[in-house]
Amino acid sequence: LDRPSADRACVVLTLEKTQETWWRSVFRDAPPRDLIDCQQVDSTKKMDEYDDETQGAIRKIMFDQRQKQKGLPSSDELKMNKLLDEAKDLPNSPFRDQDSSFFNAPTPPLNGGPP
Predict the structure, then answer these.
(1) CB proximity list for 22: less than 8 A, separation 6 or greater
(2) Could you tell me the pTM of the whole model?
(3) CA–CA distance, 18 with 37 (Å, rounded to integer)
(4) 9 with 2: CB under 8 angstroms?
């Protein structure tokens, strides 16, 4: 729950499409005033007609969709993996080498008994 002020509250929902299509509305039985007129959505613009920021966002979305179709990591996941790889090279990093005690620590038993 996101609280922009003490007297107001709003809920943030994230919806993921299962099919690539334009939605007529967000809710199944939306009143006519809340319907999206798909005929007015301009999906014919060329990439170079958008500003740089929008072009970047579109390219990122397209890349992530291709990665998802191939079962590969998204751009955000690739970025996180790169940061983790860079962290391995930092001085005194517990991730520096596989011989670290961090990786070789005994696994505690699940039932609380001796290992």
Answers:
(1) 36, 38, 41
(2) 0.44
(3) 20
(4) yes
